[in-house]
Write a structure and sequence with these properties.
The complex is a heterodimer. By secondary structure, chain A is mainly alpha-helical. Chain A has two domains: 122 residues, no CATH class; 169 residues, no CATH class. Chain A contains 15 helices and two strands. A two-stranded antiparallel sheet of chain A has the order 1-2. The N and C termini of chain A lie far apart (45 Å). About 3% of the residues of chain A have low confidence. Chain B is α/β, with parallel strands linked by helices. In chain B, β15 and β16 form a beta hairpin. Classes of the chains: A mainly alpha, B alpha/beta. The interface between A and B is large, with 37 and 67 residues. Bound molecules: iron/sulfur cluster (2 copies).
């Protein structure tokens, strides 16, 4: 018995499952770093988040959609990890993250029909929901264990961006707080205040490079995102260094790298053509700086990406691939 | 930097398992079934009747229509019937059945191995001869060659491009010809180029064939205005429009032909057939066929008389077809056709028989589109396959046409790349047929 089908008769090794697996692997360095710095609480939050995301998707597919569950494709695991990486490692998150997971999967993803149909990055939908509903818990940050300097006790401190926003709102200048900003070394290796996943730039970049090598993402969104944020913040900084944060701090704080490599690049919610991806990244970068500088929240990455998610269908229409035989 | 085409493309592993197997002659079969339509256009009209004795190379079908080609007997023997046969898809096609007796060639065919450089035909005779000898494009399209080169076409042509790319994985028939018959191929290119009054000739070869590139470069140096262009390995490098762009940087506009940008393009195998036709008086009745696959122990490049049944070709090559075989393809894995009817005869356009294992043969189940854009970035024509898929499923053909679905060359790159395993190329094929059916008849 022979099969008959039309061409092509071969397929690349690529599959949705494999791409999700690559994203998972790319997030492992962040996961390890978060456990190193925040200890058990990071582990509990991440596991809770992943388990809840998978569970909620499964329940909705089984009992609402009455169809076989697609949990196996791994996208719920990825969302769960990303969600966890976007919250502070405090004990109150142990239960808040469950609500975040429900919103992520229920409203962010399944309400639209599941993977591939959701216009917004589900993890960001969950995160923004938590940020608005639990503003205090979501912005109380434990300082990561200062294992470099020997300090081991976790303590609560504002993130660098929150600190600056507050100071400027009270009429101070950046110079007043510069001594309280984390050192460059702690940005790169970790140990500054912030969410689980954003403490170490090195871990994020390592994961990003892995994604690039596996061709899960292209360089266009991260590079244009980071580049646009760098340029705009650099321009503002040149205009008035007292009022505006310098571009390097801008890039290394507030989850910008995490957003640029892992959130904005979510294939479902970002444009498909090369030119569209550049437009998307530039939009994310500019909006991030604008929201951080003039908006009510100290951090703008999540909102910027969600806003750009909303215009992705438009970008897909406006920036089509260049036709060969035009 | 090696030359290549502008956008898109994929990198499937090339699996040229038979690359180092010299061309062997397949023993004569006991019977051949010679299809009267082995080319694009009207079938040839049979000139023989049951009981007729024929010689190798004798004209048995005449291409009477404008778009048609002559058919010659590939064997000597007795015509047993003139009837329908079934092609690889199982469709009925007119054919001549011949029982093989001995191997007696027409005396006009020069069977000596000697290479003949001089051609004393004048230009119009060259193309008449090509027509007489039943030459068609051997790259798979089987377009009658004499029509392509029709000398009374007054468009200015300044590039003769020869396709030695063979970008389909597995296939090695052309690359063997390039290595074993480099001189003959160059001679044919030179004759055709001069006869048609074309300024430049270039032969494109992919970088995975260094032996062919080195040899051809050496041989081509002895001819005027013949350039060998090594090309980057990327599929579909051998697609007409992509190859023309790689070599000349010209873009064939939508709905136009190579000739509209001053190019004529022929396959390297076709050039060898032209050499034999012009210099040896030998009609096109045999060709090189690669018989290959991961699941088979031996890989071969056979010279096969057309009309030999595919089954006997495969069985001679690998013995009894094992149960582990899942699919047998005429042509390469990207654009070839799965064979439904193994008893079908081989034809002029069949460059390879690819035998696939059961495990390679089954398509994975389709999941939802994750909007990753891989299909769109793989497309060498700059189209949006995912969009066509959605439009075709919703029967929105007018929109599909507006988004240039007819530009699609059916190369399969999109479906190959899609992580959701969507049958994109199949859907686009359907969409194209629907769009064409909607268009006003010319
Ligand atoms: S099959 Fe058509 S749509 Fe798909 S990649 Fe090839 S040219 Fe593009
Ligand atoms: S490659 Fe497949 S999954 Fe990706 S956008 Fe195209 S159709 Fe969708």
């Amino acid at each position: 018995m022979l099969y008959v089908s039309d061409s092509p008769h071969i397929h690349s090794a690529d599959s949705t499952h494999l791409m999700m697996w690559h994203v998972f692997v790319a997030m492992l360095p962040m996961f390890v770093v978060s456990i190193l710095f925040f200890g058990l609480s990071a582990l509990i939050i991440t596991l809770t988040s992943v388990v809840c995301c998978c569970l909620f998707q499964w329940v909705i597919e089984r009992f609402v959609f009455h169809r076989p569950s697609m949990v196996g494709d791994g996208s719920a695991v990825v969302t769960g990890m990303l969600l966890a990486f976007n919250v502070p490692a405090t004990p109150s998150m142990y239960w808040i993250i469950i609500i975040g997971a429900l919103v992520s999967m229920g409203i962010g993803k399944m309400a639209f029909g599941g993977l591939g149909h959701n216009p917004f990055n589900p993890a960001l939908v969950g995160r923004v929901f938590m940020l608005i509903s639990f503003p205090v818990q979501m912005t109380t940050w434990p300082v990561a264990k200062q294992w470099i300097s020997g300090q081991v006790d976790a303590m609560t401190g504002p993130t660098p961006l929150g600190l600056i926003k507050e100071t400027i709102a009270n009429g101070g200048t950046i110079a007043d707080v510069s001594s309280q900003l984390p050192s460059w070394g702690s940005y790169v290796l970790g140990s500054m205040g912030g969410s689980l996943g954003e403490v170490s730039a090195l871990a994020i970049i390592a994961g990003g490079v892995y994604l690039l090598c596996c061709k899960v993402i292209t360089w266009r969104i991260p590079v244009s995102f980071i580049g646009a944020a760098f340029l705009l913040s650099g321009l503002l900084w040149l205009v008035d260094a007292d009022m505006y944060l310098d571009p390097l701090h801008t890039l290394l704080s507030g989850g910008l790298l995490l957003g640029a490599f892992f959130m904005a690049t979510d294939m479902v919610t970002s444009p498909m053509s090369h030119s569209g991806q550049l437009v998307f990244g530039i939009g994310c970068g500019l909006l991030t700086v604008v929201i951080r500088t003039w908006g009510a929240y100290p951090e703008g990455v999540s909102f910027a990406i969600l806003l750009m998610n909303a215009v992705t269908p438009l970008i897909n229409k406006g920036f089509r691939p260049k036709r060969f035989s035009a | 930097m090696l030359k290549t085409f502008a956008i898109g493309g994929i990198h499937p592993s090339d699996n040229k398992l038979a690359a180092n197997q010299p061309i062997e002659y397949l023993p004569l079969p006991q019977q051949v079934v010679v299809m009267m339509s082995q080319h694009i256009g009207a079938p040839a009209v049979s000139l023989v009747e049951p009981g007729d004795k024929v010689l190798v190379g004798q004209l048995i079908g005449e291409g009477k229509a404008f778009m048609s080609a002559n058919i010659h007997s590939p064997v000597s023997g007795v015509v047993t019937k003139v009837d329908m046969c079934r092609d690889i898809a199982g469709m009925p096609k007119p054919a001549v059945y011949i029982n093989v007796e001995g191997d007696e060639w027409l005396s006009t065919i020069d069977r000596s191995p000697e290479i003949k450089y001089e051609c004393n035909l004048d230009p119009s005779q060259v193309f008449d001869k090509i027509k007489e000898m039943g030459i068609v494009g051997l790259g798979g399209a089987t377009f009658p060659t004499h029509i392509k080169y029709a000398a009374n076409d007054d468009r200015n042509i300044d590039y003769l491009i020869v396709n030695g790319v063979e970008c389909e994985p597995y296939l090695t028939a052309d690359s063997r010809l390039l290595v074993e018959h480099a001189t003959e191929i160059c001679i044919a290119i030179d004759i055709v180029r001069q006869a048609r009054g074309i300024a430049h000739a270039a032969i494109g070869i992919e970088a995975n064939k260094p032996e062919a590139i080195a040899l051809m470069t050496q041989v081509a140096g002895r001819f005027e205005s013949l350039e060998v262009v090594p090309l980057k390995m990327k599929y579909p490098q051998g697609a007409e429009k992509q190859l023309i762009y790689a070599i000349t940087h010209r873009r064939v506009p939508s709905g136009k032909l190579p000739i509209d940008v001053g190019c004529i393009i022929s396959n390297a195998g076709t050039m060898f057939a032209i050499y034999e036709a012009l210099q040896k008086n030998k009609p096109l009745f045999e060709r090189v066929v690669t018989v290959t696959g991961k699941g088979v122990k031996t890989q071969h490049n056979y010279k096969v008389r057309v009309g030999t049944s595919i089954k006997s070709l495969v069985e001679f090559s690998i013995g009894e077809i094992p149960g582990s075989v899942g699919k047998i393809i005429s042509g390469g894995p990207m654009m070839g056709k799965a064979i439904f009817n193994l008893d079908a005869p081989t034809t002029k356009g069949m460059g390879g028989v690819l035998i696939m294992n059961e495990s390679e043969s089954v398509r994975q189940e389709e999941t939802t589109c994750i909007r990753c854009g891989k299909c769109l970035n793989a497309c060498p024509m700059g189209l949006e396959p995912y969009l066509f898929s959605a439009l075709v499923r919703h029967e929105r053909y007018a929109e599909a046409r507006q988004r240039n679905i007819l530009d699609c060359i059916e190369c399969g790159s999109c479906a190959y790349s899609c992580p959701a395993h969507k049958p994109l190329t199949s859907e686009i094929r359907l969409g194209k047929a629907k769009v064409r059916a909607m268009m006003p008849k010319k």
